[in-house]
Amino acid sequence: MPTVTESGVIAGVWIVEPDVRGDEGGVFVETYRREWIPSGREMIQANRADRKAGAVVGLHYHLHQADYWYVPFGRARVVLHDLRVGSPTESKTQWMDLGTRADGSHDHRGVFIPPGVAHGFASLTDMTITYLVDGYYNPADENGVAWDDSDIGADWDVTDPVLSERDRRNPARTAIEPRLRPVWPMRT
Questions:
Q1: How many CB atoms lie within 10 A of CB 163?
Q2: CA–CA separation, 33 and 23 (whole Å)
Q3: Are 4 and 16 in contact (CB under 8 A)?
Q4: How far apart, in whole angstroms, are the C-alpha atoms of residue 86 and residue 162?
Q5: Is the pLDDT of residue 187 over 80?
Q6: What are the percentages of helix, strand and coil residues in the chain, rounded to 5?
Q7: Which position has the higher pLDDT, 186 or 111?
Q8: What's this model's pTM, rounded to 2 decimal places?
Q9: Is 60 a catalytic residue?
Q10: Catalytic choice (32, 61, 68, 131)
């Protein structure tokens, strides 16, 4: 059985340490099961992104969609920030490295990110990330906050980040329009 633990930093974020089975031919990892995430919904779309070392993606957030992230190749620094007004963990920031560890072994953890929690990642190496979502792509629910906002205080572990134009334009946390500000409680 995998170990599924709620984050000690941000309410509603779940970290999954799956069972890894292997032999001389390789490994098998069951990366996600709906039943592992308390009060989560069915994931209905799967996505994959390949990024070069030094890329920073985010911070993005949704009002209506949850994500589940897994890094099968390379190493990513995942950054999460609770934007939900009234949340018991409002304004808390957490980061963790997923994927290949410094010693060459692989960290197979996955992370469930509820609506209202901003999320992004830095490619510490060339890497691949897969993410499941519980809503179909909806551009009206694609929101962002500045990756380098000093109020968020994220440690991306990159010195010269490569950012998309969209991510360069994301507003500071304090400049998020009221209609786009997540409010606790939100569904997971």
A1: 16
A2: 23
A3: yes
A4: 33
A5: no
A6: 10, 40, 50
A7: 111
A8: 0.95
A9: yes
A10: 131
- The torsion angle over the Cα atoms of residues 174, 176, 180 and 186, rounded to 10 degrees, is -30
The encoded tokens of residue 173 equal 């946390």
Give SS3 for 165. helix
Q: How far apart are CA 31 and CA 11, in angstroms?
A: 22
Range with the poorest average pLDDT among 22-26, 47-51, 68-72, 166-170: 22-26
C-beta of residue 53 within 8 angstroms of C-beta of residue 123: yes
Confidence bin at 40 (pLDDT 50/70/90): confident
Taking CA atoms, 93 is separated from 47, 71, 106, 128, 139, in Å, by: 25, 20, 24, 23, 25
157: left (phi over 0), alpha (psi -120 to 50) or beta: left
* Catalytic entry in 60, 62, 108, 119: 60
State how far the alpha carbon of 31 is from the alpha carbons of 47, 52, 108, 130, in Å: 14, 23, 8, 10
